[in-house]
TrEMBL record:
SMART domains: SpoU_sub_bind. One of its GO terms (molecular function) is RNA methyltransferase activity. Residues 9-85 form the RNA 2-O ribose methyltransferase substrate binding domain. One of its GO terms (cellular component) is cytosol. It comes from the Bacteria. Keywords: Methyltransferase, Transferase. InterPro entries: Alpha/beta_knot_MTases, Ribosomal_eL30-like_sf, rRNA_MeTrfase_TrmH, SpoU_MeTrfase, SpoU_subst-bd, tRNA_m1G_MTases_N. GO terms for biological process: methylation; RNA processing. This is RNA methyltransferase, TrmH family, group 3. Pfam families: SpoU_methylase (PF00588), SpoU_sub_bind (PF08032). It comes from Pelodictyon phaeoclathratiforme (strain DSM 5477 / BU-1).
């Protein structure tokens, strides 16, 4: 018999498969055992990959620890406690007269995601946009790093970064990114108008397919020896510049 789900964990082959079929958007990550020879485990793995959900292999001991029981049948799904909004919803009911959004391409460090959500809430941004199946799930570490801001900030999940940027353009939202090679200083970009700040992955930066949708690429001057800022610090600099311009 398959186990029922607890508040944030679903375990057992039938239970996880049903969740994948009925509410895949609620899944943050799926853990499955190294040996996936069971037909239903194979189906779960194939379905998760097709839906581009974050998944990973785990030893039976870790699965038991996550599920809180040894009756997990080789699979556990972490369920988000976050209510996700669509990008269309946020743009239809903006917090600001001229919306301000942060788009995260796929950050792997949950501390960075939490810090960005905290800063976005501090400047009263409209939403933080995440790409489904990319980067770290919105887990307990993100909650803690956001220092409670996650409860107040609207979080969007989109299936495609490119389609999200296309929608922003259609809604007259300018797309802005940061790059140390850019010529435009970040203080010279007009952020009083509707703006979406796109932040790339740690290390590799913004993907080329995303850059082609950017209306402006700005530079944050560096006077010291380091080449770049941490992505959450970059977010803070740009978001507070947007707030400074809007208050002025």
């Amino acid at each position: 018999m398959d186990a029922e789900h607890s508040e944030n964990i679903v375990y057992g082959r039938n239970a996880v498969l049903e969740l994948l079929q009925q509410k895949p958007e609620s899944i943050e990550k799926i853990y499955f055992q190294f040996n996936t020879s069971h037909p239903k485990l194979k189906e779960i793995v194939i379905t998760a990959r097709r839906l581009k959900l974050v998944s990973g292999k785990a030893r039976l001991e870790k699965l038991s620890l996550i599920a809180g029981t040894t009756k997990h049948q080789g699979v556990c799904a972490l369920i988000s406690s976050v209510t996700y909004y669509s990008l269309e919803e946020v743009l239809a009911t903006p917090r600001n007269t001229f919306p301000l959004l942060v788009v995260l391409q796929g950050l792997d460090d949950p501390h960075n995601i939490g810090a960005i959500i905290r800063t976005a809430e501090a400047v009263a941004a409209d939403a933080v946009v995440l790409v489904e199946g990319k980067g770290s799930p919105v887990n307990a570490v993100v909650h803690k790093a956001s220092a409670g801001a996650l409860s107040h900030m609207r979080i969007c999940k989109v299936k495609s970064l490119v389609r999200a940027l296309e929608l922003l353009h259609q809604c007259n939202v300018q797309v802005l990114a940061a790059d140390m090679e850019a010529e435009l200083n970040y203080t010279d970009a007009d952020m009083k108008k509707s703006t979406a700040i796109v932040l790339g992955m740690e290390g590799s930066g913004i993907a080329p397919e995303a850059l082609q949708f950017c209306d402006h690429v700005v530079r944050i001057p560096m006077a010291g020896c380091v080449e770049s800022l941490n992505v959450s610090v970059t977010a803070g600099v740009l978001l507070y510049e947007a707030m400074r311009q809007r208050l002025a």
